[in-house]
Amino acid sequence: FPVIVSQDCGHAETAGVIASYGAAVAHIRQPDLSEVPVPPEHRKFQGYYKISRHYRWALGQVFGAFRYRAAIVVEDDLEVAPDFFEYFQAVLPLLRRDPSLWCASAWNDNGKEGLVDAGRAELLYRTDFFPGLGWLLLAELWEELEPKWPAAFWDDWMRRPEQRRGRSCVRPEVSRTVTFGRKGVSHGQFFDQYLKFIKLNDRFVPFTKLDLSYLGKERYERAFVAQVYSAPEVRLEELQADPGRDPGPVRLQYRGRDSFKALAKALGLMDDLKSGVPRAGYRGVVSFVCRGRRVFL
């Protein structure tokens, strides 16, 4: 895996650390370090504009100057799991042959300890939510996105229907990245409540030796719908009172945005929606673990 480090600042100490890796990495520098013109009401969001500018330039270099056909995007505040590259190597062929997939991510937004089945680290899912935080895209997708790349807030822009176009992303049961970036342009938004509790997978899963054909759209949807709607429906109070004797999956039904947010908050899930899509959700359903049993919200 060739490593390209794109630097978006004139910080000499950072450049020195990158240079210390010698020929092991390609060091590129974003040439435009000027302030980005922003609307007066967005002055406090200047950092988000600079990040979006850097993404556009760096991905343009990866796919244009270097002419790679796929790339894994990793921010500088991420730690990766032992099977991080193995995972992406295994899912790359899925993206190439399945037009209903547009990316793969190492991240589970609801990947806190206790909300995932750490013993099933090989499990992968389709999600309608763009997770980011260590993600794989093809050159063909960049060719589609680059002409309309946004001035700021690129990740939420990716989550809009006109970009997603009904496509899904692959994500793991147990995250293959964790972030230690409490400080940054987001000022630690979500960090203390969610992000610092994300469980990083600690065992190697040989994904390239596994059959991942179950992630194909038609096969996945048949199995997913059957699994979700064969699970008995329970109320929140029943789930919370459950002593854990019955390990079978259950279904918790929400009825609208406010209902979802209330249930998600009560269960320790991330409760925000982007363009109407819940984090880690597929067809409006969020899969997680509660008291050791699988729950479909």
From TrEMBL:
<dbReference type="GO" id="GO:0003827">
    <property type="term" value="F:alpha-1,3-mannosylglycoprotein 2-beta-N-acetylglucosaminyltransferase activity"/>
</dbReference>
<dbReference type="Pfam" id="PF03071">
    <property type="entry name" value="GNT-I"/>
</dbReference>
<dbReference type="GO" id="GO:0030145">
    <property type="term" value="F:manganese ion binding"/>
</dbReference>
<comment type="function">
    <text>Initiates complex N-linked carbohydrate formation. Essential for the conversion of high-mannose to hybrid and complex N-glycans.</text>
</comment>
<keyword id="KW-0472">Membrane</keyword>
<dbReference type="InterPro" id="IPR004139">
    <property type="entry name" value="Glyco_trans_13"/>
</dbReference>
<comment type="pathway">
    <text>Protein modification; protein glycosylation.</text>
</comment>
<keyword id="KW-1133">Transmembrane helix</keyword>
<keyword id="KW-0333">Golgi apparatus</keyword>
<keyword id="KW-0464">Manganese</keyword>
<dbReference type="GO" id="GO:0006487">
    <property type="term" value="P:protein N-linked glycosylation"/>
</dbReference>
<keyword id="KW-0479">Metal-binding</keyword>
<dbReference type="InterPro" id="IPR052261">
    <property type="entry name" value="Glycosyltransferase_13"/>
</dbReference>
<keyword id="KW-0735">Signal-anchor</keyword>
<protein>
    <recommendedName>
        <fullName>Alpha-1,3-mannosyl-glycoprotein 2-beta-N-acetylglucosaminyltransferase</fullName>
        <ecNumber>2.4.1.101</ecNumber>
    </recommendedName>
</protein>
<keyword id="KW-0812">Transmembrane</keyword>
<keyword id="KW-0808">Transferase</keyword>
<comment type="similarity">
    <text>Belongs to the glycosyltransferase 13 family.</text>
</comment>
<dbReference type="InterPro" id="IPR029044">
    <property type="entry name" value="Nucleotide-diphossugar_trans"/>
</dbReference>
<dbReference type="GO" id="GO:0000139">
    <property type="term" value="C:Golgi membrane"/>
</dbReference>
<keyword id="KW-0328">Glycosyltransferase</keyword>
